[in-house]
Amino acid sequence: MAIIMSHPMNTQEMRVLQEFRRTAAETMPVAAIKAIKHPAGGGEAPANSLVAKGFLTADSGGESYTLTEKAKEFLALDVKPEFEEAGSSDAAEE
Question: What pTM was estimated for this model as a whole?
Answer without folding.
Answer: 0.72
